[in-house]
Amino acid sequence: MPKNTEEKKPKSKAKAGSYGAEQISVLEGLDPVRKRPGMYIGSTGTEGFHHLIWEVVDNSFDEAMAGHADLVRITLNEDGSVSVFDNGRGIPVDIHSKYKVSALELVMTKLHAGGKFGGEGSGYKISGGLHGVGVSVVNALSEWVEAEVERDGAKWEQRYEYGKPITKIKKVGASKKHGTTITFKPDGKIFSETIFDLKYILDHLRQQCYLTKGIRLLVIDERDKKQPISYGFYFEGGVKSYVKHLNSKKQRKHDNIFYIERQMDSVGVEVGIQYTDDYKETVMAFANNIYNPEGGMHVMGFRTALTRVLNNYARSKGYIKEKDDNLSGDDVREGLTAVISVKIPEPQFEGQTKAKLGNTEARTAVESLMNEVFAVYLEEHPKDAEAIIGKCVLAQRARAAARAARDTVIRKGALEGMTLPGKLADCSSKDPSDSELYIVEGDSAGGSAKQGRDREHQAILPLRGKILNVERARLDKMLANNEIKNLVIALGTGIGENLDMDKLRYHTVVIMTDADVDGSHIRTLLLTLFYRYFPELIEKGHIFVAQPPLYRIAKGKNVQYAYTEEEKDKIVAELLKLKEEPKKKGKKTEAEEEPEEVVEVTEEEAGEEVDEEKKKMSGISLQRYKGLGEMNPDQLWETTMAPDSRIMKQVTVMDATEADETFTILMGSEVAPRKKFIQTHAKKATVDV
């Protein structure tokens, strides 16, 4: 007989530890955004918190790029909310035939809903936001959102809370204006940061304003009602004005800025170029106003054309004669400041972060226009052309010298079996992710660090004196400096053209210098080296700055360390308070069991004048550390090197343009900008003399 083939129904309850249908969750509406906010805005820290503003503002700039708006206003309100207004067409408010809700509610509550998907018949031919998740993500991650739309002779409003509509869209009056205002308050339960940084906002929006010339942008800070602050941006020159801004603190090789703005087929191209006496290049690439830090096709087209045009001009004018003397891409990019902005209907970005543009038509458009127009510019501006070619030829010669110096370092290392620097006390571990390199100021501190370290995981490299300021030196001169050469060999990555970050020997690199003026200078020189020649170390979070204590405070067996003046005062006050408490009968206090160490606190030890309070501090030993070398190995380990108790600051770059400008001001050859910077920030500085 045939077997019973009746299918058994699955049980509704899965056994403990099993994985069945009941364990599958479906997030609907905006729930996935609240569940995994990092997938949509990158993080829930400072960058993600401010990214909410960028998402709303990007929509306003899309209206401007489409030619429908010329004013964007951002207001930071007293209650922690933000209002973004543009005088564009206004979000449509009519009922959508398929979803049976207003178009406004649709774009506010549905992911991937917007007017940027329909090609020629859509609401936008060019836009930055392509995924349709911008304003709906802001809605999902806010306590509340209020949308106001003015269009078609009326004013409309709707309110949302935690991504859900609380009221229906309603007409609240007549209006002859047109535009959209989105006001939102970020959800404090999601973000670790809850206060908007005005400077951070201004820096980002200034950049956007450069890229959309002719638009007026206002930023109003009304968080302090008594002293509201307002800023306005308007740049008629567009990308040309941006190049001028980037080079404002640099020594320029020629006065005229090469500028082109032209449409080629469906791609709009805007390029600005000017050379400086720097040894590095500054290239900012954008597609539909979105910054592409990894470049893409438009940058490839630009670089190809730049190298070809300059070589053709140099050969035609007799600057180079032999075929083998052609200028390389590195030669023509030294000292270059360029901004490349393309406007393209269907941009193809690599990933949600839009770091790299993949459209081949962008490469064709930029390359063709540069070949044609830049060649004409060089012919029409012979003095500028001579300055540019002279810079490139000099870079070519210096690069040859640098290559020889670098090869010497590599060859020397190879002949010696890749011997590490003699001063380097390496760690036993060969796993880079588990290894740390401490760059220490001076042999004295290096000796203490070598004795106090964890030999398994911590390597010590002492530096003798101050390293070369690499902001003012080429690679060949750098590699002639023993301290820099030792550091490059210790890192293992190579430098320049042979840089390979996969060969990094330590994933934690710690700068450990004295807490004085010289220590701060050495730290700045090292940071300049890392930022200019090893930027990936900073980008990937490998660089740290150690925070050694300023004071050792002891009373009997009670020893504490203070890392700031405020912390020192607090500890001393607590110890004095304990001393004044009455002794309990029948029990000897710690002070009675051990003879009290009475130390007179001098001006040198305290780092400040002795007042009446200090004279009462008998029994308290207060030691001011002037340098790391004054610390015993066990003290250095306990306070600065032990992973479970040390304090370290990770070095990050939030704004590459601002960081570049700051290093140029502080470490460059121009004195006037540095003098102005010092005068501006003098009151914030704390100098330990």
Structure description:
Helices cover 37% and strands 18% of the residues. It has 689 residues and is α+β, with helices and mostly antiparallel strands. The protein has 3 domains: 31-233, 2-Layer Sandwich (Heat Shock Protein 90); 239-400, 2-Layer Sandwich (Ribosomal Protein S5, domain 2); 420-548 and 650-684, Rossmann fold. The longest helix is centred in the middle third of the chain and has 34 residues, at 382-415.
Features:
5-stranded mixed beta sheet; Ribosomal Protein S5, domain 2; disordered N terminus; 22 strands; Rossmann fold; 3 domains; alpha+beta; 37% helix; 23 helices
Strand content: 15-25%
Mean pLDDT: 82
CATH architecture level-2 label of the largest domain:
2-Layer Sandwich
Number of helices: 23
CATH class of the largest domain: Alpha Beta
What would CATH call the homologous superfamily of the largest domain?
Histidine kinase-like ATPase, C-terminal domain
Structural class: alpha+beta
Task: Note the main sheet.
Answer: 9 strands, mixed
Oligomeric status: single chain
Q: What's the count of strands?
A: 22
Distance between the termini: 102 Å
Spans of at least 5 consecutive residues with low confidence: 1-28, 116-122, 414-418, 584-616
The overall number of domains is: 3
Topology-level CATH name of the largest domain: Heat Shock Protein 90
Q: How much is the radius of gyration in Å? A: 31 Å
Outline type: globular
Proportion of residues in helical segments? 25-40%
